[in-house]
Design a protein that fits this description.
By secondary structure, the chain is α/β, with parallel strands linked by helices. Helix content is 36%, strand content 26%. It is globular and about 45 Å long.
Amino acid sequence: MLSLHNINAFYGPIQALFDVSLEVRQGEIVCLLGGNASGKSTTMKTILGLVKPRGGQVVLDGEDITSLATPQRVRRGLASVPEARRIFPRMTVRENLLMGAYTRRDKAIGDDLARVLDLFPRLKERLGQSGGTLSGGEQQMLALGRALMSRPRLICMDEPSMGLAPKLVQQSFELIQQVNAQGVTIFVVEQNAQVALSIAHRGYVLQNGAMALSGPAQELLHNPDIRRVYLGEVAA
């Protein structure tokens, strides 16, 4: 569905990504792991069209979308749940959700809103409430629901566990699994390796802007390097 081929990205003269390649297949949950300044967010921004690479290709369903602007990518089925949710705090829950359908002109928006509210009944209880008054977990539901309102085929999530209590982190990733079970492909950029790999089909690990490891999620979860660096375990 989505693939990056030898992406080289820069911020001015500073190179952030070095020949990064990855693939997200239809129906998968794929996670991208890495520490601070590893290049995770730059990879996400490249997929969404917020960073233009100086080399390489972004391909969606066989089409080279490297030169397309972000709204054009959204119309082709990409959606984003950004870092720290970034909902509109003064808008109501309903208004936030409808913003996800901003690029749509069809007549099925109401039906999709009903489906999102069925998926997230907590939001249904708070439709007229300002988004900024929701809890962190509820805001995560709102950000994910807003993304679903664009009728995406692929949702890109940037650090969904950020700022959430451990219990809410688990709930957030259970929601990701629910959305994936409905046929939406998920690409997750995350620092919490254990929880991300526990729900993913496959994973990639970035280090200093270059791909260091990749493979099935369960293999990565039991990889001694992953366990040492990301799970804090000390080798015997």
